[in-house]
Design a protein that fits this description.
499 residues, alpha/beta, Aldehyde Dehydrogenase, Chain A, domain 1, Aldehyde Dehydrogenase, Chain A, domain 2, 2 domains, seven-stranded mixed beta sheet, six-stranded mixed beta sheet, methylmalonate-semialdehyde dehydrogenase (acylating, NAD) activity
Length: 499
Amino acid sequence: MQEITHYINGAMTKGTSGRFSEVFNPATGEVQAQVPLATVEEVNAAVEKAAEAQVAWGATNPQRRARVMMKFGALINEHMDELAELVSREHGKTLPDARGDVQRGLEVVEVCMGAPHMLKGEFTDNGGPGIDLYSMRQPLGVVAGITPFNFPAMIPLWKMAPALASGNAMILKPSERCPSTAMRLAELLKEAGLPDGVLQVVHGDKEAVDAILDNETVQAVGFVGSTPIAQYIYGRAASNGKRAQCFGGAKNHMIIMPDADLDKAADALVGAGYGAAGERCMAISVAVPVGEETADALIEKLTPRVEKLKVGPYTAGEDVDYGPVITAAAKERIERLIASGVSEGADLLIDGRGFELQGYENGYFVGPSLFDRVTPDMEIYKEEIFGPVLSTVRAGSYEEALKITMDNPYGNGTAIYTADGDTARDFAHRVNVGMVGINFPIPVPLSYHTFGGWKKSAFGDLNQYGPDAFRFYTKTKTVTARWFSGIKDGGEFNFKAMD
């Protein structure tokens, strides 16, 4: 049995709590490792060491810190396949999807190679008589990242790269379900030149999370996970005087207009709805066709596409469309929600319950499910299913479709498929959702923009990566300077008589 360790002061460090969490292979249901769950004392000790290491790191020239990011990016590229397999082994993603997980994190690292530019302050010359004003961005000190199971590489990289490039030390608490990728990234950062102690990887459950939130040295917390936990972490962090950016759940809608290319829309829905077994906060889980004719035609195109999806373990080849969900409990919850949709009157066109794969009968596989005629009062609409289930909510008009989307309490991502520029522009301007796709199903912004939802999908004022990340991980100091006039005529060679 493999025993995963913490990563403290640049070394693999065994836990001392005596408590462990099991790490499963989602494809087989077998326990493949155990990971230690840190105590409050272990978390506080890690923070103390990080604070010591941060002093020199924060004083390091920003360009030298950027060079560590350059080397780190090169090492991620060099070890891409190894990192992807770590992701697949513990999460269950297909290898192409796992490589995408690593790649989207790497892109944020690449932006952080330009951190010196992002960290520049401002200057006002002669703001008053002989007075100059300038501001500088300085690191916060020790910050923390609490990251989810569904992107074991991408989201830790979204957190650590801008935090470290800004001169902070970071306590990273990855998901105990998928801990190995974060550990390998920490090793690669050390190889890239990051000083020991600047990044600490501490595993744990609620006890460790609360220790991070209550530790006075930790100045900021970034979190991604479910909405109830995001709200809890935001509230506790804020009450303790910390900055917090906490990203929660989602219920992402795609509106399909009558003038849309339905083949392209159907292809987009299948990829966005079922990719990664639906375990993405940006997955499209609700299709909103406008008009009965559009809805009927869309369902006709979706059904054969969904029926052809290939479900299996990542080891079955790169033509597998998606793998298992993360745990037995997740599988049970998804199948319960499918049953509730049937009992509440939705039309279940494709039923993914009871899916079995020869040789993997104990794996956490759920077949693709497709619902039609779902209504907003149903549990399958209200809940974030986080599984391979696509619901179709029919709308009679564009305004009704827009209202359905806007009335939903979540506001992470949304999309519209249309051939009409005026409709697309109106949608982008009016919809109360943080990330919008036009003929683009999963509108995750490129790494030099910024990622963040609205409403119950996000808590906090600043988004992830891009310019907002550097604002979040630094504090601004403004200096007002005046120099009084002195000797301007050069040196004097005689003694001056006393007054």
